[in-house]
Amino acid sequence: MARSQCWCAVSLRTLALCIVSVLMHCSQSLAQSLSAEQFFAGKTIDMVVGYPPGGSNDIYSRNVGRHITKYIPGAARVLPRNMPGAGSLVAANWAFNIAPRDGTVLVLLSPTIPLDEKLGTPNIKFQSDRFAWIGRIATSPNPLMVWHTSKATSLKDALAREITLGGTGAGSTVSVFPNVLNKLLGTRFKLVMGYKASTEAMLALERGETEGHSTSWENLKASHPDWLPSGKIRILTVFALERPQALPDIPTAIEFATTDEQRAILRAVLNSTLIGKSVLTTPGVPEDRVAFLRTAFEKMLRDPEFIADFTNIGLAVEPLTGLELQKVVAEVGGMPAALLDKVKAAYGD
Questions:
Q1: Model pTM?
Q2: Cβ count within 10 A of residue 334
């Protein structure tokens, strides 16, 4: 009798597991059979940013969350989520390995992640070209500034003496770009690490804890639009491939290179400024949903209200389509081995 009851219990468990498996399969098949528009109807989409609240990355991601729903029919809603850590590598690893692969997650990460991966940065558990890149909002030039009390008036002054800069995550451009100049050109920037975000590092600059800081132009404009016009800061150089329209009189870091090799290395590193403020989704999302999100994103970038959110704080919208962005990321992955070795030497600690 006991053996019969045991057999019945096992059979019932097996039957239950079979039913659950069939239901899950049916649910997945139904989801796959829906059109992209039908799938997103009523869905909640997470807009994840790999940084703390308050910085420029947070501003960009929240603006996307507010406006992209206009172009996703069916009353979908977007919820902002901050997932800071290691210059956004925590969020990148999560997006690649844990997040749903159905299009309900959008992510804004550091623009250096393709190069970080190529260089073999520790703790990277993702492949940049397997993310589905949705589109770019704007480029991301990084000015390197010092407080007005600093004796430094040019990047050349950093060759002669040590200048302390507030630093954040090791994978952030805030820290990466000055370190590259130290390795490549011989500047003497000293990174004081541990600040949670550029907003905190700029507060430290204002208090006199550090002499300078390197952050994105949009972050500087959004957080302290008066600093440059009022003379509170001086910009020694800007990390970008070309002089930004907003800073036509500031030399780029590339202009201080003295050899073709230095210029090639800086161009490889600063390619991340082209990736800029970009949004991606997880790997494995069905192609029709990726195309749907890219179309919605492109429409959002032309929305006058979306553009006004940036122009009102002195920032520009400089779009790049998801397909074009995917090619930029692929180019980083295809860097020639000889150049890669030289970039690694400049990029290292």
A1: 0.77
A2: 10
- Distance, CA of 342 to CA of 262 (rounded, Å): 9
What distances in angstroms separate CA 298 from CA 47, 60, 306, one per listed residue?
Answer: 16, 15, 11
Rounded-to-5 percentages of helix, strand, coil across the chain: 50, 15, 35
182 contacts: CB under 8 Å, gap ≥ 6: 188, 189
- Per DSSP, the residues of 44-83 read EEEEEESS-TTSHHHHHHHHHHHHGGGGSTTT-EEEEEE-
- Give residue-wise pLDDT tens across range 217-226: 988 988 899 9
Q: Considering its fold, how many domains does the chain have in total?
A: 2
Residue 242 belongs to domain spanning: 142-270
For residue 259, the domain's CATH number is: 3.40.190.10
CA–CA separation, 294 and 290 (whole Å) = 6
C-alpha to C-alpha distance for 127 and 133, rounded to whole angstroms: 12
The phi, psi pair for 99, rounded to 5°, reads -60, 150
Residue 7 pLDDT greater than 70, yes or no = no
